[in-house]
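Task 17 of the worksheet. Students: predict the tertiary structure of the chain below and write it out as structure tokens. Keep your answer in the requested format; marks are given for formatting as well as content.
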Amino acid sequence: MKWGRKGMTDAIEEYRKFIGHTIVTEDVITASQVHRLNVTLNREDPIPAEGDPVPPGWHSIFFPRLNLTRDLTSDGMASEIEDGPPSPLPRRMYAGNNMRFHQPFRIGDRVTKEISIASVTPKEGRSGKLVFVTIGVKITGPKGLIMEDDQNLVYREEDTGGAPPPGEPGPEDAAWKRTVTVDPVMLFRFSACTFNPHRIHYDYPYVTDVEGYPGLIVHGPFTAVWILELVRDSAPDAKMTAFAMQARAPIYEGQPFTLMGEPAGDGKSCQLWAVNADGVIAMKASAEFA
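Model answer:
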């Protein structure tokens, strides 16, 4: 794919052909897969039993994209949906999610995911051409709808070497607070749990020499899981009904980042942040409770 104006236009049109086209896949919620994420997070929880609920937001470890290895691009990525369109621009970034939880996943459930491209929006930003893509997801189980998830991605041109825009500083303090440092082994384990082949998360020579980043990048969904863990441990009795987050800046392996949460006075919602080692908001999120 040549990424000139015509190449970009052609790729966008290919993407738009898939709007409304639904791909259906199935999976089984297994105790072994859930426990792999437990140990990746250094949680000492026992192996879950049949029928046990799965924490909200852990669905990323199921329904992996099963593209053939030969179909992956040089960065390890492929289309967001099996047999889907090519990327509209060469570099992809995770932008965020908007989740609605209707009931928990449970160990042993056979579940079905419907995924479709909901929208494709080209824009011109400070860094050049951008294409915003929203992927709509619905997951159902034996008792009906489990969750909905609008996944937001942004595609952009190759890096021109300009300085990134300054980020938004994080809050000075919050009611809930925890500092985390992610190392390369943990990044590799999360990539394995989610069957994510994107090389920026585990291939140090590639991410530094080819992509030009200072180190391995913490997955956006992994940062979201850490935020959700802060909520789960700080408000263990709360029933989460919605979770929305937006990626703002990268977090790199080996650099501590701070998870922060400020619950509303009525206990029905909370504001959440992941603040990177530079004091900049790397992810901004919110949660709602029943």
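Marker's comment: The chain has two domains: 1-162, 166-290. Strands lie at 23-28, 91-101, 110-125, 128-141, 144-156, 176-180, 240-247, 257-263, 269-275, 281-289.
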